[in-house]
Specification:
349 residues, 25% strand, binds 7N-methyl-8-hydroguanosine-5'-diphosphate, 28% helix, 9 helices, four-stranded antiparallel β-sheet, six-stranded antiparallel β-sheet, globular
Length: 349
């Protein structure tokens, strides 16, 4: 119920923003959205799949709910395309603790109704003024079955893949998926080609062999450095994951480590000691990329069953050029992931 009312708030807020835009800015060619905190925003180039509101969403079901993360993962449809599914993720944003935001929050504008009161203790249902506390909404539309599976609550299993399993099972499986366009990484190419998100780029080295683009991950709003989450995406195409890295990629990895750290220090004032730089194995998207997050950010995807530190990867490759072709990887897969069945049935161990 709470989520529903918050969802209504965000839909309403987006509608207000849209109504404030000029005609040239409305529809799919809209150039910008503001954000909920009234910060000025850069003008964004929007893809044709971006929406002005969630109005008319139907067949909505809950894929998963994470109470500690205060997030709900929904599946639904929009009237213009009953064939297409959407994944909508609604999350509570961290508080803005700037003096301006706090004085707005602790004011008559925040409606209080008492839930409980005993002596010096009281709790309230507090409804802040519109524009003070928003939700982060993520839309994947149209969403593939793989996206829906990714966000659906499912049992997970830890499985081990040897180097031989990768060659004989995982790689052929991935190639089949690529040819069926299941692992679509158009969003990565849009970034590398400056077709989308170019205004968000923090740093770029355009060398085709060792260069990369550094920009905020979709999960980060780019504001609070304590929740920094950026990704470094190499310009070089065709390296699917950490599994394919060898000695010849050392210049690329060292370049990312050096220049990404330099750019983050310059822009956000954060040192290497406050950051983790890592790969995911298995990743969701098979174009090599490095995740860079603030160490205090407590997020899924940093566990021993998925994250591989960039420093360790560099060191291991220096010790043995084909380390990542030889190594066995353990990782988790969800119940419905076809790769789980492939590995369970065919792997050597
Ligand atoms: P991953 O390890 O392949 O998969 O990381 P994961 O999502 O299961 O962690 C891909 C990373 O890219 C994730 O951290 C995503 O949040 C991020 N990401 C995904 N997409 C589709 C986009 C996008 O369009 N823009 C940006 N900036 N980040 C994205």
């Amino acid at each position: 119920m709470l989520c529903f009312s918050k969802a209504v708030v965000i839909v309403h807020y987006m509608s207000v923003l849209i109504s404030n835009m000029s005609e040239e800015q409305t529809g799919v060619t809209k150039k910008s959205f503001g954000d909920n905190n009234g910060h000025s925003t850069k003008r964004l180039k929007l893809s044709e799949n971006a929406r002005a509101s969630f109005e008319g969403a139907y067949d909505v079901s809950v894929l998963n709910e994470k109470r500690t993360q205060k997030a709900v993962f929904l599946q639904g449809k929009f009237p213009e395309n009953p064939e297409a599914d959407a994944v909508i993720i609604l999350e509570q944003k961290p508080f803005d603790v700037s003096p301006k935001a706090l004085s707005g929050l602790l004011s008559v504008e925040t409606e209080l109704s008492v839930d409980m009161n005993n002596d010096i203790y009281s709790t309230y249902n507090a409804i802040p003024a519109r524009g003070i506390c928003g939700l982060k909404a993520t839309l994947i539309y149209p969403a593939s079955k793989k996206h829906i599976n990714k966000y659906r609550k499912q049992d997970i299993f830890a499985i081990t893949e040897t180097g031989e399993d990768y060659q004989k099972i995982t790689l052929p499986y991935l190639e089949k998926q690529f040819s069926n366009n299941v692992f679509n990484i158009q969003w990565v190419y849009n970034i590398l080609d400056h077709k989308q998100e170019s205004e968000r780029i923090i740093f770029e080295d355009s060398d085709p062999e060792v260069g990369f683009v550094l920009l905020p991950d979709m999960k980060w709003d780019g504001k609070d450095a304590k929740s920094l989450y950026v990704i470094a995406i190499p310009h070089k195409r065709g390296i699917k994951s950490v599994r394919e890295l060898t000695g010849k990629h050392l210049p690329l990895l060292e370049n990312i480590e050096l220049k990404a750290l330099g750019a983050i220090k310059q822009k956000f004032g954060l040192d290497r000691e406050s950051l983790r730089l890592y790969f995911h194995y298995q990743p969701s998207y098979y174009h090599l990329h490095v995740h860079i997050t603030h160490i205090e950010l407590d997020i899924p995807g940093t566990s021993v069953l998925r994250a591989h530190l960039l420093y360790d990867v560099i060191e291991n490759i220096k010790l043995k050029s084909d380390y990542y072709q030889q190594k066995s990887f353990s990782f988790t897969l969800v119940q419905n992931d076809p790769l789980l069945e492939e590995l369970r049935t065919n792997r050597s161990t």
